[in-house]
Amino acid sequence: QTFGNTRVMYDQQGIEVGLQPDLSVQRSSPPALNAHPSTLTTQELLVLLGALRVSGWSGTIVGWLDAPRSIPLFDEADLRAIASPIAEAFRQVSPTERVFFTLPNPKSAYGDATTGALFLRGSYLHVVVTDHKAFARADSAGGDEKDVRDTKGMKLSVAQPYRAATLPALDEPGWPPFE
């Protein structure tokens, strides 16, 4: 399926993986292309994505009163479901695109989901997480759509023995707002 410039390549049980334009390509100065397509294997992605952790909170008051705990970005079932479709997407993604993912939370009354994108630039895998299904969004009391500024205090990290790379400022992507 194609929606505008977004192409859904995998869509089963609400899980979606596809390709979308990478806005950080043109925002970087000078413009920087991604190292795509790529031959990352399903097994390599299981290791890389399995090491990712996210912390955050539901609503706003909890975040002020309690330190968020770190949890796996993807639980085992989600990781097994998306690793192969992401590997296939990386084989087809262009240097100006990135791979996106959506994993729903069927238990959420608010439609919370784990959403984000991945791209390779240079020798680095960049991970963008825009929402996580473990952290319920604040109730807008009016059924309004999610406010893009509601990041739930999310922070990404990696589990030991791995460590996140620190890029020189010149290599840092030109991130769009709220990424």
Description:
The two termini are 25 Å apart. The mean pLDDT is 83. The chain has helices at 24-27, 42-50, 61-65, 76-92, and strands at residues 2-3, 6-12, 15-21, 52-55, 70-72, 97-104, 113-121, 124-131, 155-158. Helix content is 20%, strand content 29%. It is an alpha+beta fold.
Number of helices: 4
Approximate helicity band: 10-25%
Helix-and-strand structural type: alpha+beta
**Number of distinct beta strands:** 9
Describe the strand arrangement of the main beta sheet, using strand numbers: 1-2-3-6-7-8
Helix and strand succession?
EEEHHEHEHEEEE
**Radius of gyration, whole Å:** 16 Å
The largest sheet is:
6 strands, antiparallel
The share of residues in extended strands comes to: 25-35%
**Integer average pLDDT:** 83
Distance between the termini: 25 Å
How would you sum up the global shape? globular
- Taking pLDDT < 50 over at least 5 consecutive residues as the criterion, the unreliable ranges are none
Please tag this protein with its features.
179 residues, alpha+beta, 29% strand, globular
Outline the fold blueprint:
Blueprint: E1 2-3, E2 6-12, E3 15-21, H1 24-27, H2 42-50, E4 52-55, H3 61-65, E5 70-72, H4 76-92, E6 97-104, E7 113-121, E8 124-131, E9 155-158
Antiparallel strand pairs: 1-2, 2-3, 3-6, 4-5, 4-9, 6-7, 7-8
Helix pairs in contact: 2-4
